Amino acid sequence: MFLSGAAYGATLNVAAYPAVDEIVRAAIPAWKLTHPDVDVVVVSREFNDHHSAMTTALATRSHLPDIMVVEVGFLGRFANSGGLIDLAQAPYYAKQYQSRFVAYTFPQATAKNGALTGLPGDIGPGTLFYRHDLLQRSGVSIEQLTASWDSFVAIGKKIKAATGAYLVADARNLKDVIIRSDLKSGEGIYFDAQGRVLVNTPRFQRAFALARQIRRERLDGNVQDWTSEWSESLRSGGVATQMMGAWLGGHLANWLAPETKGLWRASELPEHTNIAWGGTFYTIPTKAAQPKLAFEFIKMLTLNRERQLAAFRAQDAFPALLEAQDDSFFDQPVAFLGGQLARKQWRDEAAKISAVPVNKLDFIAMEIVNTALDKVLNDDMPIPAALAEASRFLEYRLRKP
Amino acid sequence: MKLHNTTLAPYLFLSPFLLLFAVFGIFPLVFSFYLAFQSWDPIQGIDAMYYVGLGNFRFNLGDDWFWKSLYNTLWLALAAGIPQHLVAIPLACFLQQHFKRMRNALVGMYFLPYITSTVAIAIMFSALLSTDYGAINLLLRTLAEVPLLGQLLPNHNIDWLNRPENIKPAVALVVFWRYVGFNTVLYLAALQSIPKELYEAATMDGASARQQFWKITLPQLKPMMLFGVTLSVIGGLQLFEEPFILTNGTGGSDKAGMTTAMYMFKTAFEFNDFGIASAISWMLFAVIVVLTLITRFAFRERQSPPRLEQAA
Amino acid sequence: MSRNLPMSRLGAYLMVGLGALIMLMPFYFMFVFATHTRSDIFRLPPPLMFGGDFFDNVAILTIHIPFWKNLGWSFYVASISTALTLLFSAMGGYAFAMFDFRGKAALFALVMGTMLIPPFLGMIPTFMIMDLLGWIDEPRALYLPGAASAFGIFLMRQFITASIPKTLVEAARMDGCSEFSIFLKVVLPLLGPALGTLGLISFIASWNNFIGPLVVMRSAEHYTLPLALRSMQSPMNAEWGAIMAGSAIAVLPLLILFMLASRRMIDGLTAGAVRG
Q: What is the value of ipTM here, to two decimals?
């Protein structure tokens, strides 16, 4: 075994997915300056394949990488698996870094037993991208649009009447944002602190009602994200707004809708909603071969200002490190968004995001709620009945053997 | 040392297969059977398994999504499977009789879909099934102009992938596209082994082409039909790839496109319960066995000419 | 032959031709997409004609994954897997078709039973076995399990039962041939079409298989093509043009193999040698 510190000819194995794999690879030259004898091998798989492969490896506790990249949606499950190292313990003492990161990230990586299972690499502050030109043509302002959800819909009607553009691409998107807002303290999205189902509450009722209203008034295009229809509507002015993580800006500029440069702007979500949309964490499995070296590398990826900014510039990975957010890059105008100082805005909004507790069954709950929404939108099922059914269904799953 | 022992011979011939099978086939089978009676969240590690008896099976029986997935699966298996054979048999016969030089090229074109990878299919069909710009809707709208046929077709664009009632036909279309050529190849191979003497004798007896088809070709194709239909039954009931890629892994609106195999995958890797997933697979297995037996019964040999004696 | 085709025959020719074109259509799009950038692919209407970006796409492809290495591995694994499958399936199918032995029905049922287990349910136990054997990241973890093909046995047994009379085998036995030489010299030569068909299907299955490599392969250099191409995919950042280019190249060997195998399969029987 290796002496602590000096490790000759060691290799660190990192398991990742696009585009985090690029971020890790980009950090290797800097790593080699301080650790010339330690090679880093990045094994990249498609996003779902990666998490399936990690599930398989965790199941047998074998062939685990030294560093496992985990997306926040999966972190809730992986953190509670007992297969990741608690970085708050010796010799890592990672809790000391908590104040250096955006506040809501640490709770996301904290397991039920208090273990800190990972460090945040990047965050996805939720934002509203909107077509400035379409709003102008309709004679409305962004403040009017985002004053409240009701005004969002009302103004949306005006925009549709004046320009023919849909308000949103998919009503489901709207539902997703609303159910994440206005959480009482200790509440998760679908379950409360005691694990009770929260699906049949006013928060969901409101989300469903607004989604249905949008569909009925033909204010949504009923297209799924990441399809050709969706990208076409972004390109051609077929849709006036898109709510998503701030990283969408980079995609719009690079390949989704480069010809619409200057026409989009970014704003806070309606009703001053601040939520997170994705996020990457670096974790170390308990069976890692080189946990200490792995931790050194992770520190470089997450605590090093240069690396965080490099990832932001190259892959639109919004820094989780507060110091990295304190750079002139954030004060620069973003050309694609018509010169708006969007990065500064996102930074301020990210600070307001509150941590949301996760539950093992969140993924199932999401699918059940989506199905309920489908029934409301497609089959005209009354909302109370749909939510009651979803609630019952979810409770049934809680009682599984 | 030459082997003449006919008792020992079959075992020896089977031995390579059996060895590999014992190692790589039996263990997963047994493990999955064992798991069906456990509750297991895989990421907690092997030790986290605990016994729940028939609990998983009971849970599935009370699970709406399980029954819905079963309905979707049966629907798709029939809707995609039946046309495959109804088209493949006449197609194979036609190709066999009327094409000599172009036969390989034509069969090749029908076989191409089988070769294509799912990545390519996902992108291609998303473009083709696009509501406003897809070629399929374009084709349908053009055909709707045709006088008689047009009455049957809708005169607006069909939203294939977003509306629950259209997802299953869309998936069935893709599955049909993918496997009709495969079945055509199987039937062509079988047609090649029908002795020409049978047809010559029938022609001399004055039988017409149609009579020869029904009385000679079809009965001779029966073993291959049993084989092909069994494969379609098994494959259809295990349908996973096509619905998965067309609905992006979600099962579509109101889970209208979620097959049982897909539900099993989600239960295992997204909902993280391998015990329930294994129970689902064994319940599906029971359905497949029943349907396979029904297929065998339907295609059973009523008389047994010595040549076609079944070995099992 | 009569020179004037009846209308129904002409109609049938047209439908077959149209059908072939429809089969071809998605394929055509795959090759067209392979020559466009990802922006263009996501456009509506999608591009219909070939573009000029093929080589750019291949360049992007090779930056992200060791494409040619992966292609090589796919070849290696698929070839060995197919060869073994053909041999073992022919032997096994022959045993089931020509002999009566104790436990035959039960064994056959067991073999058929494995065809009914969905592949990904076997992911974790397969991983466990490979780990135990030390075969993780080794190609033999891919081609050896694949050689035990229940489908292959099923197909071979079917074909042998339908086209090789027991009398032929018995005659050879009476002539004093050993069991194995009967198999090699009498039966195997008659299995041309079945071997061609099974060989093609096995090769394709091995080539397109991605669950096996996902479970077993740990380093990008050892990936086979489907896994490698998938590893470039993420809904948000996929280089679709490059992926389509990779898929298009990946399908070519299968096409070539099909053209070779089909000739063997279909023309190989005109001699009518079945009846001996």
A: 0.85
